[in-house]
């Protein structure tokens, strides 16, 4: 009887710990997709690229036009925009290496992730993009059918009383993502153009599914590795809900960095022609 109670209690501890483990592994992968700060401006300051659709607040169909314009930007980012510094293709996104250090509370992990590849953004659908004519921020609704993150991990440490010493391949695959992004911005003038100064993003999202696998999770203990991955997949809803605040903040950081790079180089008046010439 005591043995049975101890086994059940141990399993509950493992399950609680694994959610924290997933947060430690997944979140840094997403964080590393963020691009470095822009050091200069691209050659687009004087010539508007053909792929950008210019809209006007005065147009009754402004929201539809703006939605098409943002969709065109996403489509172009799939192949990459020539001349745009520090903004590569978004599908695939490749990250060379990430270091993860977590030493607070009951979690102590020293880990690294390498050769990370993120795919799926080529299928991004911009459902609606609304730009405010008062503060010039915008709200964008995006649908992403499926995203996949793959890479290699190496981990040493502990979660509660569970030692973790493993290395191998891992992948995570959320599906049916609906993302609403709210962006805060101000305007400034440079070189005869109006630019967005993107200062903050706020993200909310839902997913309809989550699949994942971490190989060699417990240094060759195949039974524990398989049961752990099976449990996480079977219980993806509570796992994803537990991680939602952390993942949402991470997506916000990524999108903020990417948009700051893009709109530091592409004038805002390429997208909205009747923005005021003097920031207010």
Q: What would you say about this model in short?
A:
This protein has 280 residues and is of the alpha+beta class. The chain has helices at residues 2-31, 62-79, 222-234, 236-265, and strands at residues 93-102, 107-119, 125-131, 138-146, 148-159, 162-190, 193-206, 209-214.
Task: Give an overview of the whole structure.
This protein is of the alpha+beta class and 280 residues long. Helix content is 32%, strand content 36%. The chain contains four helices and eight strands; from the N terminus they run H-H-E-E-E-E-E-E-E-E-H-H. It has helices spanning 2-31, 62-79, 222-234, 236-265, and strands at residues 93-102, 107-119, 125-131, 138-146, 148-159, 162-190, 193-206, 209-214. Strands 1, 2, 3, 4, 5, 6, 7 and 8 form an eight-stranded antiparallel beta sheet that branches. Helix 1 (2-31) runs parallel beside helix 4. The longest helix has 30 residues, at 2-31. Mean pLDDT is 78; it is low at 5-10 and 17-45.
What keywords describe this structure?
alpha+beta; eight-stranded antiparallel sheet; 4 helices
